[in-house]
Task: structure prediction
Amino acid sequence: MKAYLTRRYMFPASHRLHSNALNERENQTLYGKCNNPHGHGHNYFLEVTVGGSVEAKTGMICNLVDLDDCVRREVIERFDHQNLNTLEEFQSRVPTTENLCVEIYNILRQSFQAAHLEKVRLEETSSNSFEYTGGADLRR
Amino acid sequence: MVYLTRKVEFSASHHYHNPEFTAEENHRIFGKCNNPHGHGHNYQLEVTVKGEVDARTGFVLDIKELKELLTREVLDAMDHRYLNKEVPEFSTQIPTTENLAIAIWRRIDSKLRVAQLHRVRVYEQPDLFVDFYGENE
Result:
């Protein structure tokens, strides 16, 4: 039996949306308030979905403790209470939630092996959320 | 094709234990969930069905029928129960959220007369849920 398990986490961080490929006016027009040079913050809610066979002996796709340990070590500790613009991964990319979502997916794809990573969903606010599956069709 | 989701809540207790494992293995694999006296959750169940909209009624299915089915097959059987002891599926399976989603799928899939079951989603807590789409059934 194949099932999908989703775990939800939260971390606060700040960012400023500003592209070096655009001039000042273009940045202000495109990013609006998000272009404020001092930055601003969000409580990001992260949903990590893994899929796999439910093991008969344990009734589990994977051990939740392993997933929590990996996400906390590789993702939360990296981004929690950080200014995203100061991090290496956002020196050449704008720290939009799209880019952060893809970054988190790629980190977990590398570091979590106990089940198949299906999707990363990232809520920037209660109105905006982003999903990345690594290119696979999004399951509804 | 239109998708319709009905949400219901139930409260139940459970514990995780595999008699094939040693006491130490059970504790290591299942952690706090291995407490033999059990612990409980307020489960939230979302059942999604899909189908064409009937031209005469404007419905995918009569939601009253789905509500009655969920009451009979899920709430009456599981609400305020100890899953390990009172729900037959869990006399042989560990009542994880994964197995609970599969058990609920099996209870309702064959009894849906009109629409097709698409997804069973079970929230064990607001930050943990499992989806089952009937794969490998």
Observations:
- Strands of chain A lie at 2-15, 40-53, 82-83, 116-123, 129-132.
- The mean pLDDT of chain A is 97.
- The longest strand of chain A covers residues 2-15.
